[in-house]
Amino acid sequence: MKTGVILILFSIFMVLLCINTGFADDNIGKIEQALSQGSPVPEGELEAVGTVGGCSATLITANLVLSAGHCFCDDFGNNCNNRGQFTLHDVRPVNNPSIRQDITIAGDVRIHPEYGKRGWLREDYSVLELDKPASSVALVNPISLENPWNIPFVGEKLTLVGFGYTGVDCKSPSQGKMKMEVAVDGSGWGGISFKNAQLHSCPGDSGGPIINKAGHVVGVASWNQDSSSTYRPTSYAYNWILEIPTPSWSDCSWIPIQTGGINSHGKSQYCPEGSYLTALDLDGDRSASDMDTPVIGQAKCCKIEGAKSQKWEKSEWVQIETKGINSHSMLGSWCPQGSYITGIDLDAAAGSDPMDSPVIGQVQCSKPAGYDTWGSTYWMDVGPDLSHQKKDWCLDGAFITQLDLDRVAGDDPHDSPVVGKAKCSCTREQVTPTPTPAPTPKEFHAEILPLSTQYLTKPIIHEDLTSDIEPVETDEVRVIEPDLIEFNGNNDIEENMNLPGSDYSSFDLSADDPFLCIQACKQDSQCAACTYVKPGIQGDSARCWLKNSVSEKKEDSCCSSWIKP
């Protein structure tokens, strides 16, 4: 990370500071980041994106507003305000829908308990719990969080929204709510990063959302330096944001696998009944190479604290490489929804030594009773340092659902001595219900406040602060224009047809409609084709896969595909 002046997405609306938030005259709220070259958001679009003091924020349910932790605290998680106010701008009030005005609602503030504890501005999340449902005073639809297992990939284009400064070097004043589309430069459990000299966040965008092509929130604006913008992923904090309990591990133990006589090249169960995988210890013939890993030596398995049952509700072997899913990739999904890995069957490449283990052929996935879906989910970096040691991979409360195998540079391409990343998911007892509008309380009156001016402060950042995301070459980016996308050209979709491979982005669809997938492909210049996967195949929802080239067609009843003309 470059040292020097860093703008932390947070320009200050002076009037709102005095009237709305009650911030003290200290350093709270004086560290910053608006969208540099965005397009104005048309009237009636993205109405759920508003402001909290000098920050941007998003109404994600009728009662919850998501923003950044540093919007209510200093950047070390101290001196936090426990009350705040959320303003919806230019919306229609329930009691007079013929007009548009700003509506402000107060609420209690929650700050993520890990905010700032792993490093500067890490886990930079806040939630404002409104005193009254927004639906009781404003005709606004919340923008919901994306399901936590749908994590953005590098190269995927997301929409940034905010109220901040604009122009070159963020030197122009705010023009109201702006949006722009930028390709993801880095994606990890600690942050989603964008790097572009012209398209980036500015002061005033802190706490604002990034939205995927399905129209769901996947990140919260945290900080910016020069052309780099960092957002905190909602997938990691999903359970905390929606107040879903996350049970801790219990009865953890390292189970001898190959060292205990269990064949890691067969359909062998690793974890005892009621336990789930949290880490592995890879072993091999050290006389051949320190990095050789033909077998799994040990597996760490943990139970769920307070689980309703200490038995698995369901357990099954799921084909991975044997079904065409690449175990050297983060794409796709291994276990069924709500299940976790409890056994692994290592395979060898055709023609290679039978003890070579370059791929994962199958995994045993087991579902705990009473937990229907995954909660907070993230890809955790593992690498050589953790692959061969008895060390934790997932954080407490999360279990492994998928792996991404890597190899050491220069080694045989069939060699997979390390696990590059592990996908960890927390438990989730039930799907959060869709919020329904609440009746208007007669005693409640929303306060109408004007949009105020902004003031910019530039803090000096310590030299030892570094980004947790490795910079990667950014794909072409473009500004989203406010014009609506029209459905022109050939929309013929081929039923029962799959286009395997060439995937660069995937996401759940909000409705069982293949034309939503086609529309997403049409909006993205990188997209050459797309495949629509029916509900119940890769999850409860229909899923869309965007492809940057056209691969060979394959008949498959699971899917329908479309090729861009």
From TrEMBL:
Q: Which UniProt keywords apply?
A: Disulfide bond, Repeat
| PROSITE patterns noted in UniProt | TRYPSIN_DOM (PS50240), TRYPSIN_HIS (PS00134)
Asked whether the UniProt record includes Mitochondrion among its keywords, one would answer no
Instruction: Please name the GO terms that the record assigns under molecular function.
Output: serine-type endopeptidase activity
GO BP terms in the entry:
proteolysis
Is this entry keyworded Transport? no
Q: Which Gene3D superfamilies match?
A: Hepatocyte Growth Factor (3.50.4.10), Trypsin-like serine proteases (2.40.10.10)
Q: Name one Pfam family in it.
A: PAN_4
The Peptidase S1 domain sits at 35-260
InterPro entries, alphabetically?
Pan_app, Peptidase_S1, Peptidase_S1_PA, Peptidase_S1_PA_chymotrypsin, Peptidase_S1A, Trypsin_dom, TRYPSIN_HIS
Return the similarity comment. Answer: Belongs to the peptidase S1 family.
What this protein is called in its record is Peptidase S1 domain-containing protein
What is the organism of origin for this protein?
Methanospirillum stamsii
